[in-house]
Amino acid sequence: MDLPTRLEPVLAGLGYELVLLERAGRGQLRLFIDKPGGITIDDCVAVSNHLTHLFTVENIDYDRLEVSSPGLDRPLVKPQDYVRFAGEQVTLKLRVPLNNRRRLSGQLVGLENDTVKLIVDGTEVSVDLRNVDAARLRPMV
C-alpha cells in the first residue's frame, strides 16, 4: 500500500485532511494537512507526534518528518478540491496549452465530468482535468 493511501484514513480519524505528501531528498517526508477553520502550529505538532509513533510501529523508513499547513495558496490536488473551492480565485498550470496559454487565472466554477470550469476574463473556460499540471488557490490581498 502506498503511503498517502495509508495516511489518509489515519489523518481523517484525527480530524485532518491530507492535502499533499512530498518525499524530499535524504529521507525527508513533508506532509501538508488541512481542516475546516485552518491549521495551527498545535495541529502540526499533534499530527507530527502521532505519525512519528505510527511510522515507528509500522517500520516506515524516513529520516525527517515535516508537517505543515498548505498555506493561503493551497494546492488543488484531488477532484473534490475543485468542488469544495468553487467560487474561489485559482491559477492553473496546464500540461498542454489551451488557446496558446499554459497558465490560466480566474474564478473556479467547479468540476463537471472531469472538466474543470473557470471564468477567465469574463469568459467561461473548460479544461480537461488530465491537462491540469498544477492548480492553486490565489489568495486575495
Topology:
Layout: H1 3-14, E1 17-24, E2 28-34, H2 41-57, E3 64-68, H3 79-84, E4 89-98, E5 101-112, E6 115-120, E7 123-128, E8 132-137
Parallel strand pairs: 2-3
Antiparallel strand pairs: 1-2, 4-5, 4-8, 5-6, 6-7
Structure description:
With 141 residues, this protein is of the alpha+beta class. It is elongated. The protein has 2 domains: 3-68, GMP Synthetase, Chain A, domain 3; 79-137, SH3 type barrels. A hairpin with a 2-residue loop joins strand 4 (89-98) and strand 5 (101-112). The longest helix is centred in the middle third of the chain and has 17 residues, at 41-57. It has 3 helices and 8 strands, in the order αββαβαβββββ. Strands 7-6-5-4-8 form a 5-stranded antiparallel beta sheet. Strands 1-2-3 form a 3-stranded mixed beta sheet, with helices on one face. The protein has helices spanning 3-14, 41-57, 79-84, and strands at residues 17-24, 28-34, 64-68, 89-98, 101-112, 115-120, 123-128, 132-137.
